[in-house]
Amino acid sequence: MIRDITIGQYYPVESKLHSLDPRVKLVCTIFYILSLFLFNNYYGYLVAGVFLIFVIAQSKVPVSFIFRGLKAVIMLLLVTVVFNLFLTPGEPIWQFGILKISEEGIHFAVKMAIRLIFLIIGSSLMTFTTTPNHLTDGLERLLGPLKKIKVPVHEISMMMSIALRFIPILLEETDKIMKAQMARGADFENGNMIDRAKNLVPLLVPLFVSAFRRANDLAMAMEARCYNGGEGRTKMKPLKYHKNDYVAYMIFIFYIAIIFVIRMVL
Q: Zinc-finger: is it a keyword of this entry (predicted)?
């Protein structure tokens, strides 16, 4: 299960999506997620799905790698589908006691599941195709105007970058600790919920110790290099928009225009 978590991982490959400015990917990802809530019919999901397939093809990230990340949230998807299936009001087509399934519940559960899948894949593509350093630079440039009201933009961007960088590191550390504990007879899969929670203690304690040690090492390394925040710092590779970035914006605007047409007409 640990290896199925792909959140925060970067997939190194040459593609048009990898070469885009991180600001383009950040803006488009945010508005793509918002666009999923602008419609409530299958035509909108079809357009969003076609657009997502086009982006996946441009990213050159293997589909198996993308869908592997969905295994980590399959329980969330199931809980969401079940709650919407049984709790959505409507004319029941099946009923057993207080449990009932309506046609409206089926449609709403399917739409919610598709929306969550698109949201997870769409946001994951940004981290698959953008390094943490580029994400930090892009986020800092986008939030640049907030510096005028004394918002610590550089520090916020740095914290997000470090968090994204630590996700795959901690997952790898968790996998190593689990294998070591299982070799000593630990059982993380059998037993009831209380027994499983107790069995996690030998895993969580060394994991937290390792996380604090890594954080301390990083802080000492930053201090040794005289890191003092964003004031007066320059970029070795400053961000600049290129032709492909403007083309990407135009394609995305065309997608948003179609979504608004579907919202207004259908």
A: no
Give the domain extent around 34. Answer: 2-130+238-265
Interacting residues of 124 by C-beta distance below 8 A, sequence separation 6+: 6, 7, 66, 69
Exposed / middle / buried, residue 257 (Cβ in 10 Å: 0-12, 13-18, 19+): exposed
Cα–Cα distance, 4 to 41 (Å, whole number): 31
Give the SS3 label for residue 190: coil
- Domain tally, the chain: 1
**Half-sphere exposure for 109 (CA within 13 Å, toward CB):** 21
Q: Kindly report the pTM of this predicted structure.
A: 0.81
Alpha helices in the chain (DSSP H): 22-35, 42-59, 63-68, 74-87, 103-128, 132-142, 153-183, 193-199, 201-224, 243-265
Instruction: Report d(CA 188, CA 184) in Å as an integer.
Output: 12
